[in-house]
């Protein structure tokens, strides 16, 4: 079992997803910008007893992210599932964020996911497949969250493009769209959201979904 790679393994969804896959006995590679964030996630999955690879990289630094993915693959093999959970979440209305700010947000929300997918997909497809899952959001664009709305629309398009390019080779691209603030003990509990990632990964090819929406009833 080659295991799971989680990029953006913060204290909410990222850590919950790491715990969920580790609970199935899957080794996990954890990537975040901060070594402290990675250490906290590693501690969270420690009770499962699985192998944990700790790595740091900024998802907007193409060379660093590719190098971290290569280190994870060297330790665990080509991952069975990769999760891209990095995001720039901020409130900004039309014209409130500079062009540079929009480019920086786009780099986190979309380009980092593209970097990771492009680096992993050929090897995963050559092996016969795997899952690449992206944390999405904003099912309906909101004018008070312009950069995030644009980024999450980009995530949907990226999933479609990945499926068009690699789907026939067994590469399952999908997003989990979270329509609300993540917080333990609420409808948007990260442990509940993490179940979607496991279910998507386990889906047989003939029942693949490419977007799952987690919203209030």
Number of E strands: 7
Rg result: 16 Å
For the biggest β-sheet, the strand order reads 3-2-1-4-5-6-7
Low-confidence spans = none
What multimeric state do the chains show? single chain
CATH class: Alpha Beta
Helix segment tally: 6
> Mean pLDDT, nearest integer?
96
For the report, how would you describe the main beta sheet? 7 strands, parallel
Order of helices and strands: EHEHEHEHEHEHE
What would you call the structural class?
A: alpha/beta
Instruction: Name the helicity range.
Output: 40-55%
Fourth-tier CATH superfamily name = NAD(P)-binding Rossmann-like Domain
Strand content: 15-25%
Instruction: Look up the CATH topology.
Output: Rossmann fold
Compute the number of structural domains. Answer: 1
The N- to C-terminal Cα distance equals 36 Å
